[in-house]
Design goal:
Elements lengths: L5 H12 L6 H12 L7 H13 L3 H13 L5 H12 L11
Helix pairs in contact: 1-2, 2-3, 3-4, 3-5, 4-5
């Protein structure tokens, strides 16, 4: 697969929709399996892997993946912008409101 098709994108979207149902390590592993279907130099793959780590509390591990996404030269402005945002402002989980 040279670039993600609609079916792959739908599977990734479904996984992201269900993020709260997985332990962080399991979510990352599942996302990594999906990304494994892409070429190793896929900017989208690097970005998705970075986002998974960022969203599960491992921003430190996300940074090199965001850099790899940018270095891969993804033509998608959305992916490029999101990777740049991940480098400058890593994901901060929302804290539960105190009663």
């Amino acid at each position: 697969m040279n670039s993600p098709d609609a079916a792959w994108e739908a599977r990734v979207a479904d996984l992201w929709q269900a993020i709260e149902t997985y332990a962080p390590e399991e979510f990352v592993a599942r996302l990594d399996l999906l990304v494994g279907e892409l070429p190793p130099d896929s900017a989208i793959g690097h970005f998705e892997r970075g986002s998974a780590r960022d969203s599960t509390g491992n921003s430190r591990l996300a940074v090199p993946l965001y850099r790899a996404a940018l270095a891969a030269g993804d033509p998608s402005a959305d992916t490029q912008t999101a990777a740049e945002r991940g480098l400058t402002a890593p994901y901060q989980p929302r804290k539960a409101a105190k009663p």
